[in-house]
């Protein structure tokens, strides 16, 4: 195994637990850096809001209002209705923004906390509205943060996750890997339901919220991505193997 600056993850097996429709981008990024991705989704996504429900939530918004999107999963479900929505659009990070037809604000510190930190305060008595699109089990960070800034906030739950159980052979392959990466706390919870607290030697998460949820689930996190994006996740992973 020859590790180079261009391929610092050469030969290392890395488990990806994201839903299958979201796993390929991360797998490609890992392969470019020399890793051997092991794609084994531990959750799958299920829609909970119909397109009509999402349209009904967004259509009343005006140009002074906001649609705030918490994840790429939520973005894929509101992208169509945004075509007829006059409101401005905010995204928690670059990955979410790429899944949207347009954005007016993207958090530089790619997290819900980062977006709240740069979000404008509502005009006093201006009746400003914001609709937050996120998962059923998403944290209330955006809703609470925007309300504290004076916005009248409605939440649209676009989807939820449910666990997927690998076969016995697949489970063995996961435990023999060099690392596992989590991009949501739900993935970590599904891992614990399968394996308890046994993990590969390296566990890396995409951001502080995922780290908190992973640790609450009972797992020890090796590193948290400083930049809460897929490239940031890979950089954190590379740092772990350089030590």
UniProtKB/TrEMBL annotation:
It is an enzyme of class 4 (lyase). Pathway: Porphyrin-containing compound metabolism; protoporphyrin-IX biosynthesis; coproporphyrinogen-III from 5-aminolevulinate: step 3/4. Its EC number is 4.2.1.75. GO terms for biological process: uroporphyrinogen III biosynthetic process. The keyword Lyase applies. Belongs to the uroporphyrinogen-III synthase family. This is uroporphyrinogen-III synthase. It comes from freshwater metagenome.
């Amino acid at each position: 195994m020859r590790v180079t600056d261009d391929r610092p993850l050469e030969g290392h097996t890395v488990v990806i637990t994201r839903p299958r429709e979201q796993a390929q981008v991360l797998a490609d990024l890992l392969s470019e850096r020399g890793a051997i991705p092991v794609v084994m989704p531990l959750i799958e996504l299920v829609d909970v809001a119909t397109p009509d429900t999402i349209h009904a939530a967004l259509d009343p918004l005006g140009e002074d209002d906001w649609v705030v999107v918490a994840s790429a999963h939520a973005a894929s479900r509101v992208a169509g209705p945004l075509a007829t929505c006059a409101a401005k659009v905010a995204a928690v990070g670059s990955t979410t923004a790429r899944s949207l037809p347009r954005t007016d604000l993207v958090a530089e510190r790619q997290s819900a906390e980062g977006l709240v930190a740069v979000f404008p305060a509502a005009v006093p008595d201006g009746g400003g509205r914001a609709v937050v699109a996120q998962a059923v089990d998403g944290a209330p960070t955006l809703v609470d943060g925007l309300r504290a800034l004076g916005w009248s906030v409605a939440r649209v739950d676009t989807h939820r996750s449910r666990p997927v159980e690998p076969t016995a052979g697949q489970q063995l392959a996961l435990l023999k890997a060099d690392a596992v990466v989590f991009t949501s706390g739900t993935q970590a919870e599904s891992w614990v339901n399968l394996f308890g607290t046994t993990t590969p030697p390296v566990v890396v998460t995409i951001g502080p919220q995922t780290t908190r949820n992973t640790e609450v689930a009972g797992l020890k996190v090796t590193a948290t991505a400083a930049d809460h994006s897929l490239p940031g996740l890979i950089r954190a992973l590379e740092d772990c193997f350089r030590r």
